C-alpha cells in the first residue's frame, strides 16, 4: 500500500513524514485489501487541518479534523479513521452467517461437534405432482418429498422465493 502525504501552506520534515506514514499504515493495516492512503495537511490563519482518505478494494474511508495545532489535528483525524475501520470490520464480521462458521469448524476440525440436525421421518406415498402441490400448500413447509406415481422415483417439491414451486426430479 502506498501513502501519499502532501501539505499546503506549510513544510513538513522528513522525520515527521516518516512517522505519519507509519501511523497511517498501522491504521490502514486493519482494512481488508487496502490500496492507498492520501494525507493532506493544510495551514490556514489560526487553524491546521488534517484530511486522511483511505482507499480499499470496496470501501473508501475519509476523516478530516481541524485544530489549532497540526499534531492535534492529525491525532483526531487518525482516531476518527481508526473508529471507521473498527466499525467496518465489525460490520464485515457481523455479516457472515452462522452457518458458514459451523461448517468451517466441522470441516477444519474433526473433533468439533457437528451442528444439530433435525431428522424427521415421513411416509413417502405415491402421488401425482398436483397432489404434492396441494399437500405442500396445507403443510406450509418449504419443501415436500414424495414418490411420483407416474415415474416411481422420489421427487422433491419446493417453494421458490419469488412465489410458485420448483420440482426436483432425479435422472438416471
Structure description:
By secondary structure, this protein is an alpha/beta fold. The protein folds into two domains: 2-95, Ribosome hibernation promotion factor-like (Double Stranded RNA Binding Domain, 2-Layer Sandwich), CATH 3.30.160.100; 118-168, Sigma 54 modulation/S30EA ribosomal protein, C-terminal domain (SHC Adaptor Protein, 2-Layer Sandwich). Helices cover 37% and strands 30% of the residues. It has four helices and eight strands. The protein has a four-stranded mixed beta sheet. A four-stranded mixed beta sheet has the order 5-6-7-8. A hairpin with a 4-residue loop joins strand 2 and strand 3 (48-56).
Largest sheet: 4 strands, mixed
Low-confidence residue ranges: none
- Work out the number of β strands: 8
Instruction: Name the CATH class of the largest domain.
Output: Alpha Beta
Report the CATH architecture of the largest domain. 2-Layer Sandwich
The CA-CA distance between the termini, in Å, is 54 Å
Q: In the residues, how many domains can be counted?
A: 2
What's the total helix number?
Answer: 4
Order of helices and strands: EHEEEHHEHEEE
Placed side by side, the strands forming the largest sheet appear as 1-2-3-4
Overall shape: it is rod-shaped
Range of strand content: 25-35%
- The CATH topology of the largest domain comes to Double Stranded RNA Binding Domain
Q: SS-based structural class?
A: alpha/beta
Helix content: 25-40%
CATH superfamily of the largest domain: Ribosome hibernation promotion factor-like
Task: Give the overall pLDDT as a whole number.
Answer: 84
Radius of gyration based on Cα positions: 29 Å
Amino acid at each position: 500500500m502506498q501513502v501519499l502525504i502532501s501539505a499546503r501552506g506549510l513544510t513538513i520534515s522528513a522525520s515527521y513524514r516518516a512517522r505519519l506514514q507509519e501511523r497511517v499504515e498501522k491504521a490502514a493495516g486493519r482494512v481488508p485489501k487496502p490500496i492507498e492512503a492520501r494525507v493532506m495537511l493544510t495551514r490556514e490563519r489560526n487553524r491546521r487541518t488534517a484530511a486522511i482518505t483511505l482507499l480499499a478494494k470496496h470501501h473508501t474511508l475519509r476523516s478530516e479534523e481541524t485544530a489549532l495545532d497540526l499534531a492535534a489535528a492529525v491525532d483526531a483525524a487518525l482516531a476518527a479513521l481508526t473508529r471507521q475501520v473498527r466499525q467496518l470490520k465489525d460490520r464485515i464480521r457481523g455479516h457472515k452467517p452462522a452457518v458458514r462458521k459451523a461448517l468451517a469448524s466441522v470441516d477444519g476440525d474433526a473433533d468439533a461437534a457437528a451442528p444439530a440436525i433435525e431428522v424427521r421421518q415421513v411416509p413417502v406415498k405415491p402421488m401425482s405432482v398436483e397432489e404434492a402441490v396441494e399437500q405442500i400448500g396445507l403443510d406450509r413447509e418449504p419443501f415436500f418429498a414424495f414418490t411420483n406415481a407416474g415415474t416411481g422415483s422420489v421427487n422433491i417439491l419446493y417453494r421458490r422465493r419469488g412465489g410458485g414451486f420448483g420440482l426436483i426430479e432425479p435422472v438416471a
